[in-house]
Amino acid sequence: MTVHPHEDELLAARARAHTPEFINSYRRWRPMAERSIAWLTAHHNRRLRYRGVQRNQLWLSTRVAAINLRRLINLGLTNDPTGWALS
Predict the structure, then answer these.
(1) Residue 18 phi/psi, 5° resolution?
(2) What is the CA radius of gyration of the chain?
(3) Distance of CA 87 to the CA centre of its chain
(4) What pTM, to 2 d.p., does this model score?
């Protein structure tokens, strides 16, 4: 068995990743792409449902639109007489 020359640094980084300060900072600043992919693959959506590119593209577009709408509602999307607005 061989140990990588930077094994100590890796272990220290892994230990630091479990601290409350790191967890809070990571949750706040991690890229939105990771969250979007997680939302996209949630609820058994890791596999394609249909045969053919066109049907799957339509399904994916609908799924992404629904996720985006849910995100906007959570951010405070409202419908006023003047139109849609984020509060």
Answers:
(1) -100, 5
(2) 20
(3) 23
(4) 0.54
